[in-house]
Amino acid sequence: MNVTIKDIAEQARVSYATVSRALNNKYGVDPETRRRVLSVAKELNYRPNAIARGLVSNRSFTLGLILPDVTNPYFPAVAAGIEAGAQERGYSVFLCNTNWDTRRETNYIKLLSERRVDGIIHAPVGNTLNEETEGLLPTVYVSNAPKNARQSSVIIDNIRGGYLATKHLIDCGYESVGFVGVSEHETMANNDRLEGYKTAFRRYGKEIKQDYIKFGDFRQETGYKIIQTMIADRSYPQAIFAENDVLAIGILHGIKDMGLRVPDDIALIGFDDISFSAYQEIQLSTISQPKERMGRLAVDLLIDEIESGDAKAAPRRVILEPELIVRKSSCRSTGSDEELLPRTEAGGSVPG
Amino acid sequence: MNVTIKDIAEQARVSYATVSRALNNKYGVDPETRRRVLSVAKELNYRPNAIARGLVSNRSFTLGLILPDVTNPYFPAVAAGIEAGAQERGYSVFLCNTNWDTRRETNYIKLLSERRVDGIIHAPVGNTLNEETEGLLPTVYVSNAPKNARQSSVIIDNIRGGYLATKHLIDCGYESVGFVGVSEHETMANNDRLEGYKTAFRRYGKEIKQDYIKFGDFRQETGYKIIQTMIADRSYPQAIFAENDVLAIGILHGIKDMGLRVPDDIALIGFDDISFSAYQEIQLSTISQPKERMGRLAVDLLIDEIESGDAKAAPRRVILEPELIVRKSSCRSTGSDEELLPRTEAGGSVPG
DNA sequence: CACGGTTTCGTAAACGTTTACAAATTTTTT
DNA sequence: AAAAAATTTGTAAACGTTTACGAAACCGTG
User: Fold this and answer.
1) Does the nearest atom of strand D lie within 7 Å of A16's Cβ?
2) Most CB within 10 Å of its CB: which of A132, B96, B184, B257?
């Protein structure tokens, strides 16, 4: 059906081995025959069969991308970086959507291993590593990495992010600062953000009030409901740090629908800087992650590991800096920019 | 390195052909040996090599998904449907992001054909078909289809959508209704929406005012600027139909930042119903597409074609109904629900 | 117990490449 | 002009499966 290397061989009156060498620019083929082979190939509109090639070379130039939810704007942003980077280096990527389900994660990893991908980029949901699949394939974790992962990862310093967010609110002068997080799917990223929150309290010698720490999931409605019951109960802080922007936007609406104002009655800061947070009507202060860059770094790391063959070399843990973005939901910038908290120690270095 | 069918054969003391038959539940293998083979396979943690399998069967159980921009919330919504549907039927999908670039579209199609995908789902950018690649692979177009495409497609009735949006604004009693569209990347979908706009004017015997028809690209900022210059020029309609929600949201902010109110000073309706349009602070009226369902329909169509082998059978053109969603940016519902415009004739039928 | 019919199994070829090795050809050296 | 060296080419094996075909083993029947 499809035209193969043998068809070319016939037309060009050489053996198919020579055709293979000519097409792959291998050393040791006469320039004249190479020319002839290439011209025949073009004429027949030859497309090499990547599958056959993969079988013998044991390399598919294919990656898996496992993420919890394409529909959550955070992930497409990093996926864009991954796709672009992979494409530039000759790899194609399989899209795998887990719906925040760890069992689906496991299934996908097994599937990808059957498809003989050369590696996977994984934005995992849990905070513990999956012993059944760890090490099955070269992996780079992105945006969240399980505790004591034995693989490389590209994340931001979530503790620092949580610290920056909380510090900002404290610096604004708010007496009480609450925290709304997601517990349903505990991730290291989330744990760390809470940790950063606590650190800020410690630094400022303030006491944490458990009533002002709430947990839900990662949906807008949840944030909406949580804040509304807090307000209804007349037990709410002056400011809130929400663990991600989607939650924060829900909270924002919850506050307004209860007839209170942001930031005058309750100030608010989110995390992630999804594109909609910048919208005029929302103007959510937040902690920004370099999402696309994280994606690029992750593929580059992965492909480097694959191509250098030292997949088993010391895993690299790239930890990027989060950035405080002050919009209108918190307070005007305080200007105090002192680096009270040193950056969290990274196991590896941060490139470029 | 990896455990193969031969390793199993050895352990189970049968030929590897028998192993293959046992693993694939083929007819003609003794229940006892099958049991033995399966148990050895499990014990050795065998994972079939999809690449080798693909080589001989000439089927990769792999699809390509080509879309213009993962970062635009419309596309992840349909991608989610596609991914889920494909996964359920045993297919994996390659993510291909074209950045609204037709040359990248062509390159991706060629690449996918080298990877021997069984078919592709394509949300194309142009309105003309690419003669170089058309027919190279079984294809289903989604969300936009080139004029006289020879392949199946799943789209909504964009003429009707444009009509519904415009009619809604006219019914609200606005004297003048403008149109803001994207011209940079002309698509059939966009052309049709404008067509629907014009149809509504014709039905109502109103005259179209060219000053109120503007074009830009598909970015928020563009909508923002377009409306601001209109307002600055003191030449703007009472209501605006924007060709997509991203544009509409830009317009929304543009209006507010000029000190005017929505809908009191200028009413607004968008198209697509991306998730953020529903946000409390935005409340954009819009025309909704069943995005996830479109994705599912598209994969199902594609896989049916692939598996039935009649890829060359008459292409099916599935045309779904758009739905008017009235929020707060236009006017209260008018209640007039008469079906003035018959649905656009479809070349095929709309399945259950 | 011979025989035809089933059922189970193994051998071999095939899928489209890459690549080690050897053969053939050309070029260089003496 | 022969020998040696270098270049170019072909043959064959390999990658891990599936599957057509035929051989072997088993079954029941007369």
Assistant:
1) yes
2) B96
Pick the CATH number of B158-288 from 3.40.630.30, 3.40.50.300, 3.80.30.20, 3.40.50.2300: 3.40.50.2300
Cα(A163)–Cα(B232) distance, integer angstroms:
44
Q: Domain A5-48: what homologous superfamily?
A: lambda repressor-like DNA-binding domains (1.10.260.40)
Find and list the nucleotides of strand D having atoms within 7 Å of a protein beta carbon: 7-12, 14-20
Q: Do B93 and A95 touch (CB under 8 A)?
A: yes
- B272-292 residue pLDDT tens: 999 888 876 678 999 999 999
Per residue in A146-204, pLDDT (tens digit) is 988 899 999 999 999 999 999 999 999 999 999 999 886 678 999 999 999 999 999 99
**CB-based contacts of A280, cutoff 8 Å, min separation 6:** B252, B253, B256, B257
Residues 6+ apart with CB under 8 A from A65: A79, A82, A83, A93, A94, A95, A96, A120, A121, B95
Helices (H), chain B: 5-12, 16-23, 31-43, 50-57, 74-88, 102-114, 158-171, 188-203, 220-232, 245-257, 291-308
Task: Please tell me the distance from the alpha carbon of residue B301 to that of residue B297, in angstroms, as a whole number.
Answer: 6
- Other C-beta atoms closer than 10 Å to the C-beta of B310 total 10
Tell me whether residues B92 and A97 touch, CB distance under 8 A.
no
> What is residue A188's DSSP assignment?
H
Compute the CA torsion angle B281, A288, A155, A302 (nearest 10 deg): 90
Mention the CATH class of domain B60-156+291-321: alpha beta
Tell me the HSE value of A221 on the side-chain side, using a 13 A CA sphere: 2
Distance, in angstroms, between B81 CA and closest chain A CA?
10
